[in-house]
Each structure stands twice: as structure tokens, then as C-alpha cells.
């Protein structure tokens, strides 16, 4: 049996295969951070894809933690209730589990929708607000400087992550992913390029990862015992020659998260500094996942320009990762898992309404839920 189509366990949650739909911001929520019809059709599409798990887009734990004014939120009960109603409908389509990525954008918030090309709004502009971070260093020189969080404000961020985690459970999500990657708030505290604090949240490696660990622990305390929480990280800042976040730092963080009970590490990279230099090529982030996998005993998810079935299977075969996350490839081809199953000679569970589209002569390719 192809490794890609064997089940995998993320803590208490069992997936039917090792294909994960990575979180992708849709910038299609209301200005109150609530779901719209776009999310209904998009999540339904994910549910029918045949993947083992879907992680929906970065969902803010605070109003000012959104990347843009059109991002989802879980900072209030109305948002929770609307998501719960939508998930209840989606789960009638497929047994595939759904997860949510909880996030705070920090200094990279207060932006326009990316296709409008505006970039960041200033606090006084419509759709803009005062951003926050570890220190008052902007992401771009032209950005409005963020406010450096006080200790009381840090405690509020931690509490809001925990509150959002409880709402995520109540809404019906099967797993939570903590967003500690891509230059957003938790990553801003971890990297010395964005964190110049002199208190217990800055300076040493142990101090810089403190907020991420405290957020994780607070969320774990807020959800039922055994409920699975994973973490997405940026393995490197891609700022060679500077004192920055790197793979050695990520290995140390991953070990600490494993000890606290994380059920997986989802390994991405970059997003912290505007001058990062990334050498894009197929599977360019896989070596980072492989390096972390060698040091932890929990599953490691690889992501980043993984587009072909044999490529994904090879990553698993050579034990570079335990599961494969797809983002843009799933947007381009929402039936990617079907086509991967056909290429690898495996069968895949699909909705019975689709059984008639099974290719002629491939009687074992599809089976109903």
C-alpha cells in the first residue's frame, strides 16, 4: 500500500490518509470576522476532496490580530456559533475531520486584501488599526510602527488564544493548529530580528520562545483532556549571516512543544523579514521537516511546492516527513487526492454520489464512505 494512503494518528485523532489540506487565507469574511457563503462552498469543496484532514485558514484570536479586515475570527461567541452551524452542514458531506488554525498577525496585520495591492493600512485609515508586536519594529520600513506589547497585554493575548481554543472545540473542530509561523505574532517574539525586548520575553532563546510555549499550555488547559493541538512553525527566517531564527532554533522549539503535548509539528518557513532570500524549488522546505523529524517522536508535516503524487510518496518513503500538506496544489486541483490515488494504484473513499465517475476499468479506485 502506498504510504500516502495509509492512516496516521495525530494524538487522539486518526486520519484515513496522510494528505493534509494546509490553511489558506481566503480574505472573504465579513468585517466582523464571520463566515460567509464563500466559506460554505470552499469548506464543502475541501470535505469532498478525499484528503485526510482539512485545516481551515488562519483565524484570529483578537480583532486586531487579523491579517486583514476580511479575515475570520474566533474572538466572540457569535463567530463560534456561525462556524458551528456551518461545520454541522459540512460534516453531513464527509467524515473528513476539520481543524482550525488559531492566529494573531501582530505587526503584519491591518492590511488590505492581497489582490487589491494596497498593503498595510495606517491606524487612521478605513480598515486600519494600530498593530502590535514584540518590539516597535515594522515589517516594512513604510509600515506604521507596531506597539510593543506590555506584560499585561501579553497576558491578554495568551488568554485570548485559550478562549479561542475553547470556542474552536465548541464549534466542532476536531483539532487546533497554533500558527507560530510566517512572521506573525508568535514568530515575531521568537526571532531576534523582530524581538529586541529586555524582559523575560526577549533576549535568550528560552525567553523568546516563552510566549509560544505559554500560549500552547494555556490552550491545552482550556480544551478537554486529550484534545489534539498541533503547531505550525517557520523553520528559518531565510536571513543567512544574521542573528535570526534558524533550523537549530526550530529543533529546540519542536522538542519543547513535544514535551508540552503537541501532536505534530507542521514545518513551513519564512515570512518574518521583508529581505528574506528564499530559493524556491520543488519541496524546498522538506529538508527542514526532515531535520526536525530526526529529533522528535511526534509526526512532522512537510509542506511547500509539493505538487506531484510520486514526489509526496517519495518524501514519506525516505522518512523525510510523516504527512504531506498541500495548499496551492489543492486550490488548483481540488481532487488532487483522487488523482494521486489513481497514479499510485490505490483506492480512495469518496461520496457515493461520485462513484459513477470512476474511470472505466479501474473498479477498485473509488469506494464510498
UniProtKB/TrEMBL annotation:
CDD domains noted in UniProt: OYE_YqiM_FMN
Keyword presence, Oxidoreductase: yes
A GO molecular-function annotation: NADPH dehydrogenase activity
Alphabetical UniProt keywords: Flavoprotein, FMN, NADP, Oxidoreductase
Superkingdom as given in the UniProt entry: Bacteria
InterPro entries cross-referenced by the UniProt entry: Aldolase_TIM, OxRdtase_FMN_N, YqjM-like
Domain NADH:flavin oxidoreductase/NADH oxidase N-terminal: 4-344
SUPFAM superfamilies: FMN-linked oxidoreductases
Cofactor: FMN
Name of this protein: NADH:flavin oxidoreductase/NADH oxidase N-terminal domain-containing protein
Amino acid at each position: 500500500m502506498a504510504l500516502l494512503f495509509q492512516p496516521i494518528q495525530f494524538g487522539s485523532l486518526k486520519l484515513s490518509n496522510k494528505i493534509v489540506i494546509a490553511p489558506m487565507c481566503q480574505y472573504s469574511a465579513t468585517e466582523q470576522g464571520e463566515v460567509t457563503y464563500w466559506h460554505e462552498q470552499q469548506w464543502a469543496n475541501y470535505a469532498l476532496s478525499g484528503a485526510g484532514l482539512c485545516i481551515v485558514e488562519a483565524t484570529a484570536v483578537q480583532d486586531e490580530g487579523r491579517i486583514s479586515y476580511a479575515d475570520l475570527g474566533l474572538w466572540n461567541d457569535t463567530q463560534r456559533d456561525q462556524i458551528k452551524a456551518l461545520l454541522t452542514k459540512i460534516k453531513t458531506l464527509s467524515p473528513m475531520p476539520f481543524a482550525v488554525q488559531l492566529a494573531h498577525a501582530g505587526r503584519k496585520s491591518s492590511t488590505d486584501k492581497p489582490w487589491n495591492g494596497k498593503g498595510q493600512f495606517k491606524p487612521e485609515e478605513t480598515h486600519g488599526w494600530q498593530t502590535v508586536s514584540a518590539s516597535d519594529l515594522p515589517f516594512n520600513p513604510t509600515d506604521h510602527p507596531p506597539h510593543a506589547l506590555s506584560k499585561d497585554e501579553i497576558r491578554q493575548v495568551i488568554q485570548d488564544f485559550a478562549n479561542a481554543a475553547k470556542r474552536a472545540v465548541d464549534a466542532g473542530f476536531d483539532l487546533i493548529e497554533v500558527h507560530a509561523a510566517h512572521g506573525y505574532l508568535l514568530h515575531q517574539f521568537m526571532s531576534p530580528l523582530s524581538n529586541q525586548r529586555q524582559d523575560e520575553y526577549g533576549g535568550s532563546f528560552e525567553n523568546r520562545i516563552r510566549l509560544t510555549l505559554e500560549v500552547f499550555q494555556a490552550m491545552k488547559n482550556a480544551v478537554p483532556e486529550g484534545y489534539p493541538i498541533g503547531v505550525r512553525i517557520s523553520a528559518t527566517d531565510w536571513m543567512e549571516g544574521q542573528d535570526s531564527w534558524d533550523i537549530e532554533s526550530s529543533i529546540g522549539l519542536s522538542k519543547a512543544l513535544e514535551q508540552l503535548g503537541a501532536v505534530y509539528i507542521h514545518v513551513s518557513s519564512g515570512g518574518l523579514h521583508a529581505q528574506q532570500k528564499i530559493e524556491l524549488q520543488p519541496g524546498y522546505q522538506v529538508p527542514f521537516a526532515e531535520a526536525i523529524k530526526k529529533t522528535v517522536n511526534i509526526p512532522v508535516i512537510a509542506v511547500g511546492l509539493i505538487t506531484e503524487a510520486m514526489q509526496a510518496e517519495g518524501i514519506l518513503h525516505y522518512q523525510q516527513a510523516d504527512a504531506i500538506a498541500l495548499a496551492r496544489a489543492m486550490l488548483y486541483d481540488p481532487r488532487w487526492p483522487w488523482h494521486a490515488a489513481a497514479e499510485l494504484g490505490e483506492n480512495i473513499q469518496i461520496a457515493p454520489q461520485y462513484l459513477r465517475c470512476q474511470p472505466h476499468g479501474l473498479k477498485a479506485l473509488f469506494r464510498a464512505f
